[in-house]
Amino acid sequence: MTDASYDLIVVGGGPAGLAAAAEAASTGLSVCLVDERPTFGGQIFKQPGPGFRVTEPAAVGREYVRGRALIAAAERAGARLLPRTSAVAIRGTTLVLVEDGEPARTVEAGRLLLASGAHDRPVVFPGWTLPGVLTAGGAQTLVKTQRVLPGKRIVFAGSGPLALAFPAQLRGYGANVELVLEAGPAPGPRDVLRLLAAARGNVPLLRDAVAYRTRLLRDRVPLRYRRIVVRAEGEGRVEEVVHASVDTAWRPLAGTEERVAADTLCVGYGFFPSVELLRLAGCDFVYDEDLGGPIVVRDEWLRTTTPDVSAAGDGTGVAGSYVAIDEGRLAALGAALDLGTLAPEAAAARAAPLRRRLARKEAFRRALRRMHAVGPGIYELATPATVVCRCEEVTAGALDAASEGTDDVNVVKSLTRAGMGLCQGRNCQRQIAATLALRHGGSIASLPVATARPPVRPVPIGAVADASLEDGGFFTVEG
After folding, report:
1. Do strands 154-158 and 177-182 pair parallel, antiparallel, or not at all (unpaired)?
2. What's the CA gap between 385 and 399, in Å, rounded?
3. pTM value?
4. Beta bridge partners of 72
5. Residue 408 near residue 418, CB atoms below 8 Å
6. To 5 degrees, how large is the angle CA 217–CA 223–CA 228?
7. Widest CA span of the chain, in angstroms?
8. Which of 27, 311, 362, 467 has its Cβ near the most Cβ atoms within 10 Å?
9. Segments of the chain assigned to CATH 1.10.10.1100
10. Which residue, 434, 428, 479, 426, is CA-closest to 456?
């Protein structure tokens, strides 16, 4: 079934997608915004789930308020918002959409803007599959959408701004945070000077960081630097977290292990861009581990190398909500320029302040990444018996054996079924690539990437069983 066509279809209802939808619609484009979640806002601006009524927005938090403002702006501008709708395949500028498990339909657009966001970086270590071990994003979902604390004795292990932000937010909700483990070093005088030098336009970010650290100090939550979780232990669920000091490559140092009792371990070592649709679209990528891995190549208007496909937000390299919002607006202006609803002079004028803010945010990000560069040791914590692919129950030992004669992720995938489960490799694909790189002495960046295959989201088979979809080549993958 084919739905109506639009000038612009935006995939992803987080900060970038919402900002893009509002900006594009304000120029006169017909815009459709789709997101697989029941509410818009993405991970950072996640709204309470259906059934919750907010009577005091300020009490819910600033992120809720910012998210509501973006949603309202997109609605006022006239964009069509489709929640519970997954984009599962792409061909040219036509998408296959599945809404709430209903039969798939194709939707055509003059341009596509992919703002698919990012997902938690899974870290594989002994015990990571125990109940009570959560990603930071999973724990945030419990808190933000269901108003449920993830546990009673929480340990947070991670790196980057989230290692301050989320534990402090948990304390604000009344959670008992026993310990925070930061894999990176404590900020030194040079780090502080670099951040201050990049402060112009980034004062809110610095203010937030100070507030989060102050909260942890005031509540006497221990923050240990250069420490990493090495395993979780317990009978039937996590009961103890074992952590150790690490070197500059994040490799645990012998003789430094310590234990702490916990019923919940939140893991937040950063994020991976969600690039499945971008890969299906045939876009070019470069690799940057600190930004999340595969980073799509874009021009000054955030167009990708695939005609009529743009990309914005954390799905193009994790940078946070402020960057995502401005990138969404910039990409929308580029679409309006290409589709003729904005003259070049008008587009340039509206884009100028966005470009200035983005340049300042990039300077701040460069200062931060010096402090939180991801170490390769993060991929070396698994033992041979550790399950890497949870969907298909494939161990690290099985992956290592399968990789003996190949450095191709797709070959290992075929031999072991790792990455063929419900998550389609989101939780294990990078660990598989790291296993290959470690065995063959290469780097993850140099390895062949796993082929993205539609549907890129798990949907009922009946939803995509329409023969016309196959005839259109939507589920045909080359290579």
Report:
1. parallel
2. 11
3. 0.93
4. none
5. no
6. 170
7. 65
8. 311
9. 382-446
10. 426
In tens digits, what is the pLDDT along the chain, a chain of 479 residues?
A: 456 689 999 999 999 999 999 999 999 999 999 999 999 999 888 887 777 777 777 777 788 889 999 999 999 999 999 999 999 999 999 999 999 878 899 999 999 999 999 999 989 999 999 999 999 999 988 988 888 999 999 999 999 988 999 999 999 989 999 999 999 999 999 988 988 888 888 888 889 999 999 999 999 999 999 999 999 999 999 999 999 999 999 999 999 999 999 999 999 999 999 999 999 999 999 998 888 889 999 999 999 999 999 999 999 998 999 999 999 999 999 999 999 999 999 999 999 999 999 999 999 988 888 888 899 999 999 999 999 999 999 999 999 999 998 989 999 999 999 999 988 888 899 899 999 988 888 888 888 778 888 899 888 888 888 767 766 777 765 55
Q: Does domain 124-268 have CATH number 3.20.20.80?
A: no
Where in the chain do CATH 3.50.50.60 domains reside? 2-119+271-342, 124-268
Q: Which amino acid is at 130?
A: L
Q: What pairs with residue 139 in β-bridges? A: none
Q: How far apart are CA 175 and CA 152, in angstroms?
A: 7
Supply the CATH classification number for the domain 382-446. 1.10.10.1100
What is the four-CA torsion angle of 202, 204, 206, 210, rounded to 10 degrees? 180
Whether the CB-CB separation of 243 and 229 falls below 8 Å is answered with yes
Q: How far is residue 29's CA from residue 11's CA, in Å, rounded to a whole number?
A: 16
| CATH number belonging to the domain at 2-119+271-342, selected among 3.50.50.60, 3.10.50.30, 2.30.130.30, 3.40.30.10 | 3.50.50.60
Q: Which of 227, 239, 283, 7 is nearest to 132 (CA)?
A: 239
Q: What is the DSSP string of 227-280?
A: EEEEEEE-SSS--EEEEEEB-TT-PBPTT--EEEE-SEEEEES-EEE--HHHHH
